[in-house]
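does this look right to u?? adenosine-5'-diphosphate version
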Amino acid sequence: MDLNELKDKKPKRPLIFYYLIVLGVLLLLNFFVVPTMTQRSIRETTYDQFLDAVNEGIVDEVQLDSDVIYYTVESDGHQQICKTGRIYDMQEVNRLYGKVHFGQVIPTRQSPILSFLISWILPIVLIIVIGQFISRKMAKSMGGGPGAMMFGKSNAKIYVKSSTGIKFSDVAGEDEAKELLTEIVDYLHNPQKYQEIGAKMPKGALLVGPPGTGKTLLAKAVAGEAEVPFFSISGSEFVEMFVGMGAAKVRDLFKQANEKAPCIVFIDEIDTIGKKRDGQITGNDEREQTLNQLLTEMDGFDSSKGVVILGATNRPDSLDPALLRPGRFDRRIPVELPDLQGREDILKVHAKNIKIADNVNFREIAKAASGASGAELANIVNEAALRAVRDGRRFATQADMEESIEVVIAGYQKKNRVLSEKEKLIVSYHEIGHALVAAKQTESAPVHKITIIPRTSGALGYTMQVDEDEHYLMSKEELENKIATLTGGRAAEELIFHSITTGASNDIEQATKLARGMITRFGMSDEFDMVAMETVSNQYLGGDSSLACSFETQTEIDRKVVELVKRQHEKAAQILQENIMKLHELAKFLYENETITGEQFMDILNR
Ligand code: ADP
Ligand code: MG
Ligand code: ZN
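got this back:
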């Protein structure tokens, strides 16, 4: 099959566009061209000029209208039509009688036939001609079909192997997802291998994961690897103003897919059309129809034909259950945030595109960028290259990469914002307070680097945490220590300055969230045992939670959260009190140098 013939066509303008043009032309004619044609040669004069002309005897014909007078004068051998305002004048007729002819100088009304032609017949003829022209064009481009309207056409882009150029090798990490997708690609290439055993192809696979983890990228890689047509459309493109249009688009998309089978249909951000139907009066009719159409179409597929549907979303919990049942999206492919190895691989993939020093240690950078998504890592690499250009270097270095982590996560350094000496001192103690509490609890370097340069995000200091080994389980102890670390900044301020500042707002927020989670979701309080007091929705987009308990329990929870945080705060204060000499020493170092690395920190601490 010639794959290049599948290049997507330019979207055509809707018919209404041409009708608007016709209307515009008509208005133009009526308002500008016709009046200037008929009134071309009328000269405005004053009433006394008119009387003078009458007395001179050069006026030939006069037309008295209710408030204007049109008259013709003989000048230089040809007739000139003039016009003047009419004044209340009893003697007028007497004065004119005998000197001029009364008559029709300009036609007051167009001939009825002409005006009928212009205002009715002409537009109709124009519209018919243009309509014919367009429908013939459309019929040609649609392969001889009837001149259907453009409404309800899906604008799916069709990719073929050569046009995206993205391969699985461009996607780093995400091995499980790649494996599952590779199987689908393989099936499309050798269906008989699977059919011999009687294995059926999954009809659909749903990529779920947080934003920026490479879901869209994976789908594009599938398009690049599979030598079959690949339809790509975003869920939002089905959202239409009028009921039924979205459904028509779905129908059209699947009709096209059926014709091109075997092929892959990719619907990005599928949650825009796949939202749960909640049956409320405020429900959105159009969206439900679109979803119903999608459900029907997916059922109507014969999977042996080889049409595979991929979907991507970061809100799987808001999807309609009917969409998720086997037979529609059989497979759910988790695309999670990359782990340490994954981050390193992603950095390397993107570093290939820029000039970078040979001795860059990607593992170190991956460690420092813990929690970053693939998109953020790609951004970090790009920022490093930009920074190198800004500094007039030919390639990016380790330092560029490290600075760009801070840029991507904490924002740019604020050039014009200068901390006062006093503020700088407070911020130094605050940041060291966090780090010291963390270090004393675990006996290891808690930070990669601390800087006290103001950032555009509003943070005055920035601490780059290290987490050496990835782990997925957190013990109660670790969580408590984390809360203690978060309170360490404020504790240091209290200890040294005996006053407190607003600088701890973010710490407070995080500590509260952790403490609340421990009590309401992780069953880590003695009293509530293993009862969930909170449910979390939207886990990939920040995780909003809602309480699910009685008012009395809510009060109790609040009390317990305060108690827990307070206990850790006291613990942090005590740790700092015991190590107050180190606190002074470290804060002094940070204050003077504005930055301290993890090694320098441990050096001073263990001296
Ligand atoms: P989403 O999951 O939100 O659809 P995208 O697929 O659009 O995220 O990813 C955005 C960008 O992040 C990609 O274009 C790519 O540059 C980068 N990226 C994300 N994940 C990876 C990965 N695993 N390997 C390489 N690049 C990645
Ligand atoms: Mg995406
Ligand atoms: Zn802090």
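The chain has a mean pLDDT of 80. idk if thats expected tbh
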